[in-house]
Each structure stands twice: as structure tokens, then as C-alpha cells.
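Supplementary Methods S3. Input chains for the assembly prediction are listed below.
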Amino acid sequence: MAKKKSSNADGLLRMYEQMVRIRTFEDNANQLYLSAKMPGLTHMYSGQEAVAVGICEALEKTDHITSTHRGHGHCVAKGAKFKEMFCELLGKAEGYCRGKGGSMHIADQENGNLGANAIVGGSAGIATGAALTAKRLGTGAVSVCFFGDGALGQGLLYEVMNMAALWRLPMIYACENNLYGEYTHVSEMAAGEIGGRARAFGIEAFKVDGQDVLAVNRLTQDLVQRARKGEGPFFVELATYRYHGHHVGDINRTYYRSKEEEADWKKNRDPITNFGDWLIAEKIASAADLDALNEGIRANAKAAVDYALNAPYPPSSEVDAHVYAA
Amino acid sequence: MREITLSQAVNEAIAEEMRSDPTIVLLGEDVAEAGTPFKILSGLVEEFGPDRIVDTPISEPGFAGIAVGAAMTGMRPIVDLMFGDFLFLVMDQICNQAAKTHYMSGGKLNVPMVLRTNLGATRRSAAQHSQSLHALVAHIPGLKVALPSSAYEAKGLLKTAIRDNNPVVIFEDKLMYQDKAPVPEEEYTIAFGEANVLRQGNDITLVAISSMVQVALAAADLLAADGISAEVIDPRTIVPLDDKTIVQSVKKTSRAMVIDEGHQSYGVTAEIAARISEQAFYHLDAPVGRLGAMDVPVPFSPALEDLTVPTAEVVAQRARLAVRGELFRVA
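Predicted C-alpha cells for the full assembly:
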């Protein structure tokens, strides 16, 4: 764990709280799926919380992100509320997208989240386009594209990184390397060095421990500040781990990774446990403080889930609304 | 009224809109100093500068995707896709991203962008630079599709496209870039979803798209010489489609033929013919005819290429059969 205190106690506790909110959200979403109360399929972000929170806590509300099919964590980290998120996951009218997007397309434009995307790498252009807007209109906003190691196989990413570098866009490409694209290890799918892909375009590339929220946050704060001054784009590889399978139905995983490997990450490298221990060691919070915080978040999540389960579906008249904007 | 080329009309539409809206930016390959291979955009970079007339690398999915994101965050990008055939390269960004964003976000996010591209064979450019692929995008809900048939139409429809809050794909006929037509100096736009009745007639309705409007008008002249009076309709936009005007016309003439330069199978001719059959069946005196491009990759050899596209002679011949009640014999 990084030693240097880079933020005040409130900021540190907020990062802890946001990570717990993501974990709690995912635990509830998983249960909704397993108890057949949630339609469709979903992909859990658990284990990767320090990535979304470390990055988003370095952003302003007006900065933009694009997210992935594993996107609940980014959505929470960028400021979304549980109630509207659970409503969206359950296809209810009060969801962020009126139930029309669901888990894989959740968007929250008021907080700068341009949306999750069910095409791997599909939002690389959108994020870069948001950075183009920021530069052309002089808004000062920075754009972050979250994508997994699986997206390294998509040509679109390299096309837009090339343009972002040519045009010096305020852009951060955040590669969450959780080691697995679907059911296959990254070493079988990505040749060479990951950061080298960005450096070939003249983009500064960094590698950071994605389980260390302070390290992620400190790096991102620096890069955001530099991007606002026109020194971007940047590329960051975040070494992290996906606790669940590729999707919630991916239960038997031993053919592609061992139970020992999973147990080791959870026991020794959990971003929430480790950061909680550090907060206590640094006397920023007591164990009782953190327990109370966890308890409060669990209660909030339960209330939001109960609300969403009982909330109405969109009326049938909505099926052909929003195909075209007025 | 002054006459200008379709190319000049496009250039004027972009320049006028860019003068009044600073959020418009144009992206594409060799759009700046080169002004595109067709020289359509010459002069724009001199007026608006390289920050707004942006030369991109040869990365169609990349700059199409960047336009989607820019549109979602406050710009009105115009994407120049040099050949309509390159649509296949940008399908994910246009059909999975741009087309669906407004709907998937429950109406919260808009994608006000224009994808300018072209269609048309007989330019001896072979199978990857000659296709007319508007049916592909017309199939995807969330996209609007406009097809100007003259310089006048090109300017008015493009200005409307730029002001629209949705992704619009506009196809120019690349064979018509140097064709002149009367275009007023004064400001005007052409509304989407309002078909243009170019010629009144009583015996058969010819619905023609884009490049085929000139073919239909020439066919109508041939038919007039035989005493057959053809009505010619240009839908202008196929999404939204003004089927009301088309159906009203067919109820009057009781016969219809749809002509389009896209491949005939599973194409625009089938869609419009089906709507006519559904809405005017009891008024029809002949099966609704369709003429599209042949279902072959566009060949290079001029001797072969010219066979693949409907001509005025073929349109007139088929229309005569319909009017004389002889269409069933060739079916």
C-alpha cells in the first residue's frame, strides 16, 4: 500500500466508501440474478473496485467516461445512485435509461458517464470524441476510456489512440487488465507488451497496481492535471483481477484458472480489505467506523433493491419512444 | 435562377451551416487542403481552418467513432466517408453505437451527426467503389437516410441533416457531382419525409431514388411518346419515408414501379413495393414492379458494368408491359 497521504481524510474515506458501494451493489446484483429476479445477463466488477474509484475520484463531474459490459463499478464510481441503477438492471421505468439499456448499456450523462458498451472496445471512439469536444469547445474536460485487456484485440482502439496522439487530446486510456478476456488468459491473446502499444503512438504509458486505490488515484490526479494542460493523451494499464466469472453464469472456471489463484487474490490483494486496514493503521478511521459505514451501505442497497423490485415497468407505449430525438 | 453543380451545392450547405453553428466540425480523409478526391470541399479549410475541417488518418471506424462521441457531448460532426463502399468499415460505430444511443439511454443522449457518403455505379471503379448501400443503413432503426437527386436537393437536404438531432446518413450520387441545377441564392432547407412529385401522370407511378430519378424522368419522356402518362416521385428520404404521397399517387394511377440503384434483392425497392401493395392493393391494376441493380458485384468492364444498372429504356419497357396488362407474362 502506498504510504504517502495524498488527500485529506474525507477524500480517503470517500474512496473507501465508493469501493464498498460497488462491492455491495455487485453482491446484490449477483443475488438478483441467482434468484432469477433479474432478466438477461450481467458481468460483475467485484475485485476491480480500486480501478474505477481511484480514477473517478480524480475526475470532476463534468469529465467524461465511457464504460464496458463490466460497467456497474464505473457507473457507481462516477456518481450514480443505487435506486436508478437497480431499476435499470431490472428493466424498470425509473432506471437511468428507462429500462431500455439494462446492465450492459447503463449510462448516466448527468454525471458524465456516456454509457457502458456491450461491444468490446466499442466505446474507444466515443470517449475520444468526447475529448475532441473538450478540446474544440475549450471546456477543460478530460475523457477516460475504460476497457479491459480483451479490447486490446480491437483495431478501433489503435485507430483512435493514433488520432488522440496526433491531435493531443485530453484523453486517458485506462486498460483494466484483469487477466482474462471471457474465458481465456491475456497471455494467449495479447502479444508483446501492453503499454508498448501506446508508446508506439508516442503516448506516455504507465502501469499501476490496480488493487491499490491510492496509487491509482495519485497517478490519475497527475495525469488529469497534465491532460487539462494539453499534455495528453495517456495510457494506463491497471493490474487487477475479476473475482467472478466472465458473466454471472460462469461458475465452473477451473479449466481456465485455478481456485488457488482466485483465493490468493481475494485473501491477499483485496482492494477494500487492504485499504480498510491501511485506514485503521493510519488512524484515519476505526474498525467500528468502517463497520458502521459498511452497514449503512448494505441498508441503502437493500432499500434500493426493494424499491426497484416493486417499481413499475415502462408502459407498453414506450416501446417505440426514443428511437429518434425530436 | 443561377445554376451550380451538386458538388458546389454540398460545399455551400456545409459552409453556410458552419458559419452559423460553431459546434460543427468536419472529419474525413483528405478533406482539408485536398478538398476530397472529388474536390467537393475545396475552400472550406481556408475559411474555417484545420481545427474544424479535420484531415484524419485512413481510419474510418476510428473517425466515425470519434464523431459519435463528439456528437454525444455537444458538437455536430459531419463525417466525410469517401466512398459509400466504406460503410462496411464503420458499421459498428454507425449501427451499434450512433443509431442506438438515444434509445438505449432512454432519450437522454443525442447523436446529432451526419455521415456524408455516396453511391452509384458506371464510373468504371469496380466492385469496391461502386456500390449503392443505402438499404443497409435504412434497415437500422435510429438512423435517418437521405438521398438527394440534384444539386438543389443536395443543398436543402444536407442543411436539414446537419440541423437534425439524430444520426443522418446522406448519400450523394457520385456521377452527379458535376451536374448543374438551379439553386437559389437565398437560404432554404428541404424537410425530411416529404416526397417530391416531379412529374404528374395518370397511367403509372414511377418511384425513383437518387440516381434513378433522372432515369425515371427520361423513361417518362419515352413513355409519353407512346401516349403513356407517368407520374414520377422522388421520396428524398427513405427514412423517414413519405409513403402517404406515394400511395396517394398509386391510387390515382393504379400502377407502380420502384427504381433504385441498390441491389434488387432485399432492398429499398422491395420495401416501397410492399408498402404500396399493403396500402393500395385494391387500387392496383398490375403487380408493383421493381427495378434495382443486378444482384452481382459491380463488374469493372464497361461492357458488363452498364448492364447492371436500370436504364430509362428498361424502365420504359417494363412500364409499358404494366400499363398494357402484360406484366404477368414476363413474371
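Chain B has twelve helices and 14 strands. The longest strand of chain B covers residues 256-263.
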